[in-house]
Amino acid sequence: MLCCLKFYRTDHWLPVCFFSVVLLTGIAVHGDYGVCWDDPTQHNLGLVTWDYIFGKSDALLSNENCYINPIVAAVEVIPEKIFNPKGEALPNSMRHLSNFIICWAGLIIFYLLGLRLFIDYRFSLVVCLFFLLTPRLFAHCFYNSKDLPFLFLFVLSVYALIVWVQRPSWQAVVWIIICSGLLTATRVAGVFFPVIVLAASAYMALEKKLQWREAKMIASYFLLFPLSVYAFFPSIWHDPIHKIAQVMALYSHHPYDVTTYFMGETIHSLNTPWYYIPVWMAITIPVAWWLFSLAGIILCVYKILIKKNQLSVSWLVVILWLVVPLGSAMAFHVNTYEDGRHLYFVEPALLLIAVATLKKIYTTAFLSAIYAQIVKAITGALLIATIICQCIFIVQSHPYQYAYFNLIGRKYANDYFDKDYWGISYRNALEFLVKYDHQDTINVQWKVDPCEWNLIWLRENDRRRLHVVPYEQCDYYITNFRSHKPSDASSEKIYEVKVQGATIMAVYKMHPPNILFNVAP
Length: 521
Hints:
This protein is an alpha/beta fold. It has helices at about 1-5, 10-30, 40-55, 70-75, 80-85, 90-120, 120-130, 135-145, 145-165, 170-185, 190-205, 210-230, 240-250, 275-285, 285-305, 315-330, 345-365, 370-395, 410-415, 425-435, 450-455, 460-465; strands at about 260, 265-270, 440-445, 465-470, 475-480, 490-500, 500-510. The strands form 2 sheets. A 5-stranded mixed sheet has the order 4-3-5-7-6. The protein has a two-stranded antiparallel ribbon with strand order 1-2.
């Protein structure tokens, strides 16, 4: 009986258990996250996209966000359309759950991609674990409906490409066309993928691995790719040529000017320094992941330049996935802000390189058995210690994992970088305030709009008690310190949320005159 169930095949049941635990965990905690900056706009975009697809309304065409993942936004309102929930809080939680399930499915694709690259399910599971134990990525899986679905669509597109690279077929080409079309229709940065396809094809041609049959497949891909983008991009259906030109112009010179607190200064997104993305990556990705990644990159360079070894096409795709978007962002000073979340989609490539280093350490014969044991012991100790520390942080800091900084960044986080730029912790601040003050009228002011949107979590009578008044007249001031160095608004701080010792949210009881410390709202 046990043999029939194949319990002895860990490669069968362990991945199933792993992804089942991830799914159940996500279902259990998805309702703990507050409303973020993008939630209202993405919700509205999903509704108008749904109505446009089914011919009920043309409101999508006048929506200012109509070019940012309309299909994903529409998918995430499907549960709302089916169950028609009452109120505002439940639909928000349902969208967070939908976003998580999309990411969970994407994580499975990431596992399958790992199998293609590592040919070993254990290392494929490790790379998925690395992803989940990168706290910012974990938290964003629940509410970031722009960057995380795009990240996993990039994973899906790379997976389809590597399937074709390893065994070229017309069926694989069709999947590449579909996946990359959906990717680019979700965000214009998807055009990096055809660049990767072109570079990989050129490399195959140089290595004489691209025969006439494969060349025809690549040519077909480039011919049909625009049609695939069109099919998944409802915002351009009515006028594709003009709208595509408009979209490219919009995102090559992104007009939105957003301020971010970066390295002790308030930075405008239209004028970010070239090192903006690398700095954010350096201080928010766990140090151990960086060490393994850098070791892998150095080893790769050594093999190519010194040993003159050939790089496999599959791993070339992974390296291009990391280098092309990141290099372009740095070279052209693209408009970006917050923690560089727009480039999150390159981080899976970094994690794949990190795990490739681990595999090299544990499966390669060293010159000395003693030397090999020492290297493996040090690597294992670092890996286990990091996994334990990351698990503890994710549990203890829930639901504020998005404010994570690694060992390098956390000592500078409080005074030099934005933390809760999403405004999600306003939910907890409001829930505290209505319990703290029992008066019928609570005069309050807050830093940014997400505080108002998080009122949906309060009972109706508590909402009526809160009155928004000018800053000079408020009894309480709530702030997430967005875009400036944290400083006290009054001498009486009655509530704060701290992550790794840095304050990401505070509620102040104000005293006349309210502006004691010259803090502008």
